[in-house]
Design goal:
419 residues, alpha/beta, seven-stranded mixed beta sheet, 15 helices, binds N-(iminomethyl)-L-glutamic acid, binds fe (iii) ion
Length: 419
């Protein structure tokens, strides 16, 4: 069934000439006042002013009731499926414990690994569906989803299968990422190199057909740069895009490493996307090389906020260095138990000095270019008909009503999804 969307006070298209946008090039997000849109199931057919279109007879009409219509958010960094939760750690941090201390005493990622291993694949799918439905409820129509809480061949593949089973269920589109290198499992604590070999020789080849990308957590106590390099080179040989968790808790040289991997990716495939995620502690000296590589920074302010930290990534420095910034939720049970992209936009504007326009671009068209080759994250003829309707008069109210905004309707592939 084809659909005509009418009565949009603002239809915000994010359409324009370039795909990746930096804030400085992007003061304009493409607002059409009193807009309308025609869509089929698989593409946007027409976008413009209501006065300029006659609705074809056989089209169903959706009345946006004078609200704002936006492209669906694209959340480029989530750990969508995991067993259990870590409310106990959130409470412990309130009493002074740090993320690092909690991990050192057996909590953290390892405790979620234990809970996830004790959850059946069908239950993992149900958990994933519940989380994906919550994401939709905040306007997300495409989400990346990482494995990383299995940390064995069997359990990592089970998680990736569960992630792949979320597809086609009236939920956001899902882009799976293999994150076998999220932490060292207890059984390999005394021989970490053996776990790296297991990833290289067995996990990656088996995971590659189920994943679009590979990720590694590079941090003190987790993976070393040299181990990450070997894993990511193997991943690129297998045709996977690259994401990296870098410089989250301290400056571990992640900026220079990201630039190196960004350049290296050209030898494998010019179309590869290389993202450097977190970057809270990356110094500005690293930015020119990252911009030249190019590397796409994926900034995760909700994880800084939820850990009670104050050092947010230097988004302004990255934008001024010419990088196209992405914002994402980092949804996970430890450092970022939220799926709200509107809240992430609020944090980017209040704590990272990103403009409203920069924040919106960073949650739509930029991550759409990373995860979906530019087919989603903007409202333009020929793109995927994924969009959201918001009960407000100005799109800037979405980050402004902090932690309160939700869309009134969400459409994925031209179909209204229950939220
Ligand atoms: O992106 N830092 C590594 N991974 C997650 C946290 C995972 C967890 O604590 O369970 C992150 O913040
Ligand atoms: Fe993460």
């Amino acid at each position: 069934m084809s659909l005509a969307v009418v009565n949009c006070r603002q239809l915000v298209t994010l359409a324009g000439d370039t795909v990746f946008r930096t804030g400085s090039q992007m003061r304009e997000v493409g607002v059409i006042e009193d807009g309308a849109m025609l869509v089929s199931r698989d593409r946007i057919q027409w976008v413009g002013r209501r006065a300029d279109i006659e609705i074809p007879k056989n089209y169903e009409v959706f009345d946006a009731e004078g609200g704002v219509v936006l492209p669906g958010f694209v959340d480029a960094h989530t750990h969508l499926i995991f067993g259990g939760n870590r409310a106990n750690e959130f409470a412990a941090r309130a009493e002074g414990a740090t993320y690092e201390e909690i991990a050192a005493r057996g909590g953290g990622i390892r405790s979620t690994v234990a809970a996830t291993r004790h959850t059946t694949e069908d239950e993992l799918v149900k958990i994933g569906e519940a989380h994906a439905r919550k994401a939709l409820g905040f306007g997300t129509t495409t989400a990346e989803a990482k494995s990383g809480y299995g940390l064995s061949v069997e359990h990592e593949l089970r998680l990736l299968r569960a992630i792949c089973r979320l597809g086609g269920k009236n939920l956001p589109r899902i882009s799976p990422t293999f994150l076998g290198a999220h932490a060292f499992p207890p059984e390999f604590e005394d021989d970490r190199e053996a776990y790296v070999r297991l990833i290289l020789e067995e996990m990656l080849p088996k995971a590659a057909p189920l994943a679009a990308a590979c990720d590694v957590f590079v941090e003190k106590g987790y993976f070393e740069i040299d181990q990450a390099r070997r894993i990511l080179e193997r991943a690129m040989e297998l045709g996977l895009h690259v994401h990296m968790h870098l410089d989250q808790l301290c400056d571990g040289g992640g900026g220079a490493f990201a630039a190196e991997i960004g350049k290296l990716s050209w030898h494998y495939n010019r179309e590869f996307n290389v993202t450097a995620d977190h970057l809270e502690h990356t110094p500005a000296e690293a930015f020119p090389a990252m911009a030249a590589a190019p590397v796409i920074p994926v900034l995760l302010p909700a994880s800084v906020f939820c850990l009670g930290k104050t050092k947010y990534p230097d988004a302004r420095g990255m934008i001024d260095a010419g990088m196209a910034v992405v914002l994402a939720s980092d949804f996970n049970p430890g450092s970022s138990p939220t799926l709200s992209i509107p809240f992430v936009m609020s944090l980017a504007m209040t704590h990272m000095r990103m403009s409203a326009e920069e924040a919106l671009v960073a949650c739509t068209v930029n991550p759409g270019a990373v995860l979906a080759s530019g087919m989603t994250g903007l409202l333009e003829v020929g793109k995927e008909p994924d969009f959201t309707v918001w009960p407000c008069e100005d799109w800037r109210e979405i980050p402004y009503w902090v932690a309160m905004t939700r869309p009134s309707a969400v459409f994925v592939a031209g179909q209204r999804a229950p939220i």
